[in-house]
Amino acid sequence: MIRDTTKFQNRYRIDSARLKRWDYGWSALYYVTVCTKHKVCWFGNGINGKVILSEIGTIAEYEWKRTFEIRPDMNLTMGEFVVMPNHLHMIIGIGDNKHNTRLELPLEEDNTHRRDAMHRVSTPPLSNCGIQDSIQNKTANSFGPQSKNLASIMRGFKSTVTKQSREINPDFEWQERFHDHIIRNEKSRRKIEQYIIDNPASWKEDVFYRKRQYPPNPK
Questions:
Q1: What single DSSP character describes residue 171?
Q2: What is the mean pLDDT of residues 137-146?
Q3: Where would you tag: which of 76, 119, 123, 213 has the fewest CB atoms within 10 A of its CB?
Q4: pTM reported for the whole predicted model
Q5: Domain limits of the chain?
Q6: Residues ≥6 apart with Cβ < 8 Å to 187
Q7: Per-residue DSSP letter, 106
Q8: Residue 23: which residues within 8 A CB-CB, separation 6 or more?
């Protein structure tokens, strides 16, 4: 189901594959990619198939792991993830919790909608990181509260990393948006996990690759 396409970061993407009535606080597995602004390699260098993390990269890794400790009420599950020189790929599970039970549709709609939504999610090829499904932007999702969901998790993570990173280099910035994809089945999950695992070894072929891997010096 291909929609009208626009350019994002000089690459064509699906304009919006986000499910109209899907709330991103619902229980599901999500594949997320988040990048630094202008693809600056703040997080480290790709060398011989491995990523050597910088101080800021170590902060990003630590804070992503801590995400699951500081939000026990959301019943989160940490899946495969990798910190690349200028981006992170991660799988995160949101489980049933006291917040998303209030987001369920009325009983008469639930059996139809929730099942329908899960099967209608597109799973494009993993070229370009397999992240064409949807792009979270600064505009609030009109369905459901804007807390205790995927967007609020990413806001908190990015904010914490930004605060600590700017103590090291005040020029650090994230790209404003993040990419997300609802993982709909086991086959898709395994394919994405393998992509994440293999990402450091294929850094030079990565869509986000930058030959110059060093960020600017602090002013």
A1: T
A2: 46
A3: 119
A4: 0.74
A5: 28-205
A6: none
A7: P
A8: 100, 103, 141, 143, 144, 149
